[in-house]
C-alpha cells in the first residue's frame, strides 16, 4: 500500500495477546503513531466502543485495514464503519503481510512490554508507548510524535540537550555585560544644556540644545534652535559645559517668543519718580499680592518698593522677516 500523506488518513488494527491479556493495537500509517488498549473481550461491540473513542479523539480516518478476524467481518462492525464513512479493507486469508504494519507493531509491542517496568498493567503500557512514540522510525527518520503531533514532546532526554532559548539568552547577557564594561551610561538632567550630534547634514557637527523631557534611561527630548524638538539617544548627546547656548551671537533657544531672536538690551533709568508714602508703611502685617502698575509703590511688609518706568523697547525683525514686539520690561528697585 502507498504511504499515507496525512496523519490518521489510513489506520491498521490488530489484536495481540500477551500472557493471557488481550490488547487492541491501532497504528497510523503516516506517522507510525501507536495506540495500545487493554481489552477484556475481543467482540465486535467492544472493538467498536474503543474505536469510537479514538475517532472522537483524532477524527474519522479515510481507510481502515484489518485482517479477517470474526470481530472485523461481523455485520455490526461493517455497519459501524459504513455509517461513519470509513472504507474497510480486509487482507487476504493466510497472508498477514498485507497488514504488515500492524503485524510488525504487534511484535515490537510484545518485545517492549516484556522488558518494561511498571507496577500495574497501565503503567507498563504507558512506558512502552512513551518510548515507542519518541523513538525515530527507521522508515521516516522522524519520531511518531513529530509527524502526528507536529511537535517534539518534552522527555527526560530533553534535559541534557542544549536549549536554543537558553543559548540565545546566555549570549545576549554576555554581550550586554561586555557593552556595560566597555561603555559608561551617560545621563542628563532636565533642562541641562547639551550638544546634539547633527546627523541630518549641515556645516555644524554639534547643535546646541536643552533637555526638555526624559523619555527613558538613555533617550531624551531635546529642544534645538528654532524651537524644534528631537528624540535623541544619549549616544548622540554631550554636555555643553562651555555655555554655548548663551554665547554672544548665538540664538537663544530659551526665548519665550518661539523663534531665533537676539536679545535686545534695554536701558533702565537710574532715577525714580518717588510717590507719596502711605501712612501704614511702618505697620507690620501679612503681605498681599496685587497687580503691579508702573509708577506705583509695592508694599512688601517692611520696605517699600517703587516701580520705575522704562521706555518701550523697539520691535525686532527676525531672519524670516517677521516683526516681533517684545514684552514691556518692568524693573524693580529697592529704596535706599
Task: Give the helix/strand layout.
Elements: E1 10-18, E2 21-28, E3 34-39, H1 44-58, E4 63-66, H2 70-73, H3 75-83, E5 87-90, H4 100-115, H5 121-133, H6 144-149, H7 164-182, E6 193-197, E7 206-214, E8 219-224, E9 228-233, E10 237-239, E11 297-298, E12 305-308, E13 316-317, E14 323-324, E15 331-334
Parallel strand pairs: 1-4, 4-5
Antiparallel strand pairs: 1-2, 2-3, 6-7, 6-10, 7-8, 8-9, 11-12, 12-15, 13-14
Give structural notes.
By secondary structure, this protein is an alpha+beta fold. The protein folds into 3 domains: 10-159, 2-Layer Sandwich (Nucleotidyltransferase, domain 5); 162-263, SH3 type barrels, CATH 2.30.30.140; 264-336, no CATH class. The protein is 24% helix and 22% strand. It has helices spanning 44-58, 70-73, 75-83, 100-115, 121-133, 144-149, 164-182, and strands at 10-18, 21-28, 34-39, 63-66, 87-90, 193-197, 206-214, 219-224, 228-233, 237-239, 297-298, 305-308, 316-317, 323-324, 331-334. The strands form 4 sheets. The chain has a 5-stranded mixed beta sheet with strand order 3-2-1-4-5, sandwiched between helices. It is elongated, with a radius of gyration of 46 Å. Residues 244-264, 268-310 and 330-336 have low confidence and may be disordered.
Amino acid at each position: 500500500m502507498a504511504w499515507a500523506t496525512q496523519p490518521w488518513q489510513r489506520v491498521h488494527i490488530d489484536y495481540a495477546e500477551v500472557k493471557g491479556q488481550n490488547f487492541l493495537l491501532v497504528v497510523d500509517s503516516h506517522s507510525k503513531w501507536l495506540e495500545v488498549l487493554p481489552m477484556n473481550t475481543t467482540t465486535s461491540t467492544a472493538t467498536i466502543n474503543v474505536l469510537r473513542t479514538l475517532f472522537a479523539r483524532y477524527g474519522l480516518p479515510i481507510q481502515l485495514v484489518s485482517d479477517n478476524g470474526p470481530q472485523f467481518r461481523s455485520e455490526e462492525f461493517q455497519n459501524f464503519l459504513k455509517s461513519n464513512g470509513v472504507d474497510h479493507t480486509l487482507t487476504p486469508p493466510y497472508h498477514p503481510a498485507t497488514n504488515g504494519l500492524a503485524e510488525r507493531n504487534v511484535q515490537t509491542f510484545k518485545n517492549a512490554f516484556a522488558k518494561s517496568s511498571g507496577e500495574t498493567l497501565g503503567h507498563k503500557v504507558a512506558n512502552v508507548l512513551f518510548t515507542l512514540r519518541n523513538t525515530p522510525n527507521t522508515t521516516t527518520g522522524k519520531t511518531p510524535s513529530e509527524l502526528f503531533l507536529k511537535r517534539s514532546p518534552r522527555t527526560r532526554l530533553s534535559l541534557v540537550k542544549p536549549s536554543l532559548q537558553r543559548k540565545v539568552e546566555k549570549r545576549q547577557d554576555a554581550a550586554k555585560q561586555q557593552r556595560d564594561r566597555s561603555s559608561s551610561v551617560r545621563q542628563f538632567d532636565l533642562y541641562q544644556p547639551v550638544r546634539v550630534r547633527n546627523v541630518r547634514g549641515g556645516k555644524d557637527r554639534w547643535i546646541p540644545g536643552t533637555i526638555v523631557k526624559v523619555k527613558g534611561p538613555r533617550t531624551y527630548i531635546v529642544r534645538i534652535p528654532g524651537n524644534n524638538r528631537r528624540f535623541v539617544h544619549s549616544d548622540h548627546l554631550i554636555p555643553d559645559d562651555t555655555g554655548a547656548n548663551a554665547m554672544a551671537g548665538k540664538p537663544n533657544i530659551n526665548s519665550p517668543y518661539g523663534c531665533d531672536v537676539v536679545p535686545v538690551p534695554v536701558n533702565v533709568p537710574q532715577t525714580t519718580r518717588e510717590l507719596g508714602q502711605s501712612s501704614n508703611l511702618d505697620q507690620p502685617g501679612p503681605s498681599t499680592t496685587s497687580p503691579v502698575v508702573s509708577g506705583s509703590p509695592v508694599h512688601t511688609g517692611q520696605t517699600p518698593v517703587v516701580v520705575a518706568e522704562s521706555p518701550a523697547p523697539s520691535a525686532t525683525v527676525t531672519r524670516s522677516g517677521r516683526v516681533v514686539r517684545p514684552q514691556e520690561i518692568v524693573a524693580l528697585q529697592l529704596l535706599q
